[in-house]
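[Discussion] Sanity-checking designs against the backbone

I'm trying to build intuition for which residues belong where. Below is a structure token string of 299 positions. I'd appreciate it if someone posts a full sequence so I can compare it with mine line by line.
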């Protein structure tokens, strides 16, 4: 019989693939009763150890400029990051171990908005340095960054469903239908179409990295390799959480996960040996203070 810890690990893996997977389906895949699956998922959601997030193609939301910021500070890191949490343009804020003290991801409509955001962050007390990387191309991983082509076409009904799903990615089709005044069958068809077209993704994330340091960020410097091709290869490696081409001191930024420090080291070594990679720099996520990929949805 699976322990709760083993069951949680299996559930997290399956819900990362499909955050709306039903309890019965999850139980059948794992081989445990539906009731036990329901109890564990509810407990994890209540404890915030598990979150179901709906990420939206940023172009649909008018967000076309995305940057990764690396900060060095001379003040306490966690209070500093907590002060950034209310800002909607800050979608990720994490304390890290490595050359920098914190990493922040910001999403804004234009480069001009990014320049203003950088100015505000650099002016905050305690900030020593800020280094910025621009995201390019399309991400491979659990969160949308930028589409490779034009954004999917959506209408007012799609936008209404997207906003409801961002509040609760596991809301039932019946509840969604009641909110938008359509049948459950029609809503199911619309939601599936949004998922299939890549307009949204509904997946599980953990609230924080644990003390064993199982989540690492990696910056890759390439030779003459195509960053998009390297990102595609990284996406096939076990443990790749996220990868995207960038403009700046790195050609690619990725996040990798391992069940232990030893496994994480092995995956870093695998990245070093990836064809086209000349050098890597890594940092360990110690405490993820914010990870919410949100932006106002306006029909």
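Best answer:
Here's mine. Compare freely.
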């Amino acid at each position: 019989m699976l322990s709760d810890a083993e069951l949680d690990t299996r559930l997290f893996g399956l819900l990362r693939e499909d955050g709306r997977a039903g309890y019965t389906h999850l139980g059948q895949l794992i081989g445990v009763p539906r009731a036990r699956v329901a109890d564990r998922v509810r407990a994890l959601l209540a404890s915030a150890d598990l979150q179901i997030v709906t990420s939206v193609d940023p172009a649909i939301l008018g967000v076309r400029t995305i940057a990764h910021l690396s900060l060095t500070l001379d003040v306490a890191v966690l209070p500093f990051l907590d002060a950034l949490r209310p800002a909607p343009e800050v979608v990720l804020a994490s304390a890290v171990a490595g050359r920098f003290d914190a990493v922040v991801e910001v999403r804004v409509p234009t480069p001009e908005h990014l320049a203003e955001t950088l100015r505000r962050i650099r002016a905050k007390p305690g900030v020593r340095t800020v280094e910025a990387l621009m995201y390019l191309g399309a991400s491979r991983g659990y969160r949308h960054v930028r589409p490779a082509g034009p954004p999917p076409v959506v209408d007012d009904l799609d936008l209404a469903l997207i906003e409801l799903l961002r509040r609760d990615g596991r809301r039932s089709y019946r509840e969604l239908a009641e909110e938008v005044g359509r049948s459950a069958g029609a809503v199911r068809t619309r939601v599936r179409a949004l998922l299939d077209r890549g307009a949204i993704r509904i997946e599980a994330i953990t609230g924080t990295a644990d003390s064993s340091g199982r989540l690492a960020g990696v910056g890759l410097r390439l030779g003459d390799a195509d960053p998009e091709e390297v990102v595609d290869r990284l996406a096939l490696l076990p443990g790749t959480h996220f990868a995207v081409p960038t403009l700046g001191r790195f050609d690619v930024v990725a996040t990798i996960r391992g069940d232990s420090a030893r496994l994480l080291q092995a995956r870093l070594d695998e990245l070093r040996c990836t064809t086209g990679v000349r050098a890597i720099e890594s940092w360990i996520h110690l405490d993820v203070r914010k990870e919410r990929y949100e932006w106002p949805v306006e029909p």
